[in-house]
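Propose amino acids for all 81 sites.
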């Protein structure tokens, strides 16, 4: 199931034009070099920003799911006798 979620995220990032707003190249301070094998250390500010972006994406996904349920969901009419 994790692979399915990751492939959906990648497809969303490819087909949605507004995904560029999530990345800010001006704040990218480190450029990895070819022989640099160490992991990049994240600052608390970067971690906070990632968490906020995750919350925004989660909210947008829930909103899209509600919209899809309204569009394609079946409407049950009460039967009055």
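Proposal:
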């Amino acid at each position: 199931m994790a692979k399915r979620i990751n492939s959906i995220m990648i497809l969303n990032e490819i087909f949605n034009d507004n995904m560029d707003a999530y990345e800010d190249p001006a704040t990218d301070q480190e450029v990895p070099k070819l022989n640099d094998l160490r992991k990049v250390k994240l600052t608390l500010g970067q971690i906070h920003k990632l968490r906020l972006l995750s919350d925004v994406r989660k909210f947008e996904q829930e909103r899209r799911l509600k919209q899809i349920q309204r569009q394609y969901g079946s409407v049950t009419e009460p039967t009055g006798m």
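The two ends are 46 Å apart (CA to CA). The mean pLDDT is 76.
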